[in-house]
Amino acid sequence: MFRSAFPLGRYAGVAVGAHWSVAIVLALISWLLGESVLPASAPGQPALWYWVTAVVTAVLFLASLLAHELTHAVFARHYGMKVKRITLWMLGGMAELEGEPPSPRADLVIAGSGPVTSLLIGGASIGLAYLTGDVLPVLAGTGLAWLGITNLILGMFNLLPGAPLDGGRVLRAAVWKGTGDRMRAVRVAALTGQGLGVALVIVGLAETFFMAQLTGLWLAFIGWFLMAAAQAEVTGGLARQQLGDLRLRAIMDPHPVTAPGWWTVEAFVTHDAATARRRVFPVVSFDGQAVGVVSLAELARLTPQQRLVTRVSDACRTPARFAAPEDKVADVLTKTPVRRGTGLLLVVEDGRLTGTVSTDDLARALELSALGGQHVPA
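== Zinc metalloprotease ==
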């Protein structure tokens, strides 16, 4: 999701982007308001004004989602955590934080600040619509009221006690405070999140099949997402607990066999790939810049004639992301997809390749951590 987001600038010092699915949400909200909500609430208005009000209200709603996530980011930085970026997508927004909250109190404040912001925006919008009812045009008042009600619903939904919702993190903070065991708190929050996800899937499917309401599919999709995300919370928590601050520099291969991007595929296969005991290779430019990744399986799909004329740089693919030597291994495990067999993480400094990390390297780091921290390379 982060890779395919387009930038929206920086707010409060945090980079903000939007996933392409935001366009779908913007269109759906505009359609719902322009074709249903606004005509029903304020009949007899010109169609153009319905749509203008609908689009403006939809954009303001996305702005309220951004405010929700920015509040998380501001409080996270207050407690010493780094914020990589905020990405808006079809299920709301996501603030990518580095590290873990230093205390249960910090966890509670960071998690609770987002829903509180949504509730405040909701209350303020409804109050403004009420107080200016005799001044604002009826369509503007209706749009403000819808914005307020939607933010109130969003804030209350986010407070449901299940990870990865903010309410799940509030629950995590409470259990952490009560037991002193953060990993236990992560498991409790994840378990409730999975239970909540299952309930939403059941309700959504029942609404779809027994009440013929297609909105149930959306509810079921949200439930499925909660189940998957809750499991990821447990996986990420275990990885961070086992690996601590272990960095990629400690587990990467600093001298990988590279594929020169300016060579033809045939030349690379004949001279390097045939003798290297590897299936996946980093591709570099003439000056050592990391270009991409290529596997033997991908090269095998080319015809003999294509191998003679195709450069390796034209046959490679851009990796999921370029990592830095000081990136934490735990963050890579939970946030970066590295496909077994054909995946390879390129570690770069100033654009130049300094090493590679494979799925076997990641698995080895986890297994050594499970055997005891003293076995993990420093």
